[in-house]
Design goal:
The structure holds two protein chains of two kinds. Chain A is mostly helical. Chain A has helices spanning 17-20, 41-53, 57-64, 73-85, 92-103, 122-134, 139-151, 155-168, 173-185, 189-197, 206-219, 226-234, 240-256, 260-270, 276-289, 296-304, 306-315, 319-332, 337-350, 353-366, 371-383, 387-400, 406-419, 423-439, 443-459, 465-478, 482-490, and strands at 511-514, 519-522, 534-536. In chain A, helix 13 (240-256) runs parallel beside helix 15 and helix 19 runs antiparallel to helix 20. The N and C termini of chain A lie far apart (64 Å). Residues 112-117 of chain A have low confidence and may be disordered. In chain B, helix 4 runs antiparallel to helix 6, helix 6 packs antiparallel against helix 9 (300-313) and helix 9 (300-313) runs antiparallel to helix 11. In chain B, strand 2 (39-45) and strand 3 form a beta hairpin. In chain B, strands 1-2-3-5-4 form a five-stranded antiparallel β-sheet. Chain B has a two-stranded antiparallel sheet with strand order 6-9. Chain B has a two-stranded antiparallel sheet with strand order 7-8. Classes of the chains: A mainly alpha, B alpha+beta. The interface between A and B is large, with 68 and 69 residues.
Chain lengths: 547, 359
Amino acid sequence: MKSALPRRRLIPRWRPISKTLRTSEPAPASTQPQISVPGDAALLDQSIIAWRANHSAGYLGDILAFGLHAELIPRVLDVAHQAKAAGLPITPVQLALVEALQSEQPVVARDSDAQSGKFPFQRRIRELRQLLRIAPGSTFALLDYAQLQAAIGRPDIARRALNSARTLAPNNRIVLRTTARFLVHTGDVDAAHAIIRRHAGAATDPWLLASEIALSDVAGKPSAFLARSRRLLAGSRIAPATLTELAGAIASAELGAGQIKAARAALRLALRQPNDNVVAQAQVERKHLGIALDEPKTRSVIETSAEAQLSDAWDALDIDRAEQWALAWHDEEPFSSRPIQFLTSLYSLRGDFSEARHWVMAGILADPKDSGMLVNLAFVEAALDRREEAERAVRRAASITGEWQAPFLSATRGLLAMKANALEEADSLYRAAHAYFLRVQRPEVAALCLANYARAALAHSHPRANEILTEARDAARRNPTPDSRLILGTLGETQLTSDSALPAERRPAQWIFDPQANTLTKSGGPSLKEGMVILTGRSPHHGQKKK
Amino acid sequence: MTVPDYPAHHLVGTQLKCGWRLVQKLSPGADATGGHFGVGYIAEHQGRKAFVKAIDFVAALRHADPLQQLAALTSHATFERDALAYCGEHRLSKIVKLVAHEYVNLDPSSNPLYQVSCLVLEFGEGDLRGKLTHSTAPPCSWALSVLRDVALAISQLHKKGIAHQDIKPSNVISMPLRGTHDVADMRLGDLGRVVRKDREGPFDTFAWPGDLHYRPPERWYNHRPADWQNEREASDAFMLGSLIFFVFTGTPFQPLLAAQIPVSFRPENWQGTYDEMVIEVLRDAQGKLVRECLTLALPRELRDGVTAAALELTEPDPTKRGDRRARQTVGRLVGVDRFHQRFRELALRASILERRRIQ
């Protein structure tokens, strides 16, 4: 069984479009003030007088036109309510608009609000097909359609939809980033990188720059725009919300190059107004960078980010909350193997193998060649005592997966041997896997392997089961992970230390209270380790003349 | 005789030199053309009826800047009269006709300040608002005939280099039916806000000349395309598209679209230009509204034709709005004339379908 959460990178997210539109990603890089034109209240008066003289649905419709202006909405609603109360003519669409104006919700419910993103997605796909038949030029509908096609393992249809979207909106950053994300999903990382790197806007658009840096890392290539991005970040007047992912990508690149101080500085900028992708990445990198994620803005993003909440819940071993957020994450990115792999692992670790199998099948449907999923399938089939299916899954996984997956399959074979009461063979297979993980310096995976071994040994009355359990406990204490803690928890172990204990952290910023000047100033850089939120002292700007 | 404060409001019983007698004053908002200024009356002559739009200049003289206000008012009144006269001369059959124009003065001393300009226009049976009486959709053949007539009116204006810029239900006037086969005869009224290619007008520089609530979405974001086609004709096309929603659902398209836009993209919140991102957001909303609101009101046999027209006419990008094929021709025309043909064909098909269902 593989560990629950695979490695993460700051590649673009591919959410349902209704959710993407609520993020800062579509916001303009440069801003211009809007001139708001008020509605014509006198003309509304005339329309209301006309409606009072003739209570037709047409006159009411004319009044509803004034709903375009926020300040006139209360009066429009007042008339609509009078019409409803008096039983005067009012059409279904007029009623829908009145409800929308009243609740400040859209007339047509947005996709995610309808909770239709659950596997296996047939209803949502049907709706999108209908929409695209009527409005084939709807780029955003094409993106959603592609996402669901990718989730049910039809990458060719998804690719065609994305190509159409790119033809319709070749310069739209959401379309470009989505296409790149899809190509990463299908394993065509070079193409993903090339799409972003070759686009004319990549050199100036912070979102495309961020994608280029992250994708170059995935592709194992040097970034074409890293230096330019550093300069842009240093001297930019662009809104922090627009720069967040670029700063986050630079932080990851600096961290990869061992430039801890530069990475910390970039992450600090990223966290000024972060999005969920950046916060989830920061949660992974905080252990290396020692930056606290307790700023109000960061906390508020964490509270709404499914991935970040999952990571939090998993570290705290809050299984129910982890399950809830993993499902929410899957709802957002149904094609992605990461939430599915997590759910598979969670149910397996909990011993709910039927549910685990359901999710493995969803993952394999999305990508039949996903090596992690195939390894998990073999394990789940073995755990369900479906020997033939398990052996077939092991063979299939072995034919596809690389050297790194072989020890996982070895452990699964160990489980099968244990179930067949071939204890010596089981010992040998589990030990081989364990030795491999130690050899490649992955002691936490070795500890997880031992935990699985102990669970199988106890379940099948292995004569040395208690000895194996003790060994597994020791290994898990030295290298604790939520995975091994969960398994050993089902075996009665409660004394394992939490691996969520983090080294002393720095705050991304501190406030300095200057009692002489009676001012509160934000510091220019991260605090010292375990720094206070507010320091008392002389402001760095104290004594400076105002310009 | 005392001189009324605003003489245009006190003309009932007045006999015009051209023979028309003003017999009834219309209440504000109920006037047959939905005009921006002036007082509406019903006039009679030899058993026929006409609509009279009376404009006086007293209010302008009491304004803080009377000269400027007077100049603007006379300019507007003259411009509308000339536009109506031009349409009459060129026999634009779907534009409400100007019957006569004259000044009346009720002041015993004939003080020129109390002159009232009276535009006598052909009389309709009311506007489109009054024709949608029920909660259910009207007969398809009728709705499509309305759209056919409005499309023809716009097309006639566009061919003469005139953009209406104020197409809304109250400006679509229903005329008495003459033939036995027709189900509707609609004309476009209120040329008070038109913009003309061949001559300068009082509204050329306005951010939006017509009713603000019926503006196309690019104007919500203060975007004005640079050329005539995309600035003027495409705006008229959008308002025709909005009428499709109005006749089938009782609601203009503009408030539906505005309510469907995510909060951060609403005009009052959006800080960028009218760029590809906003257009895609609006297009997404447009597709959903057409699917959820419009298609349900249409018979299956006509659904494709009507929804295609609605999508092309309410296209958020003004440079792509209009008939798809016309937009691919030299000059990238908006092609409202083609919509007239399309609606005519759809109206005929709808009539046949309805007759078959009755039989």
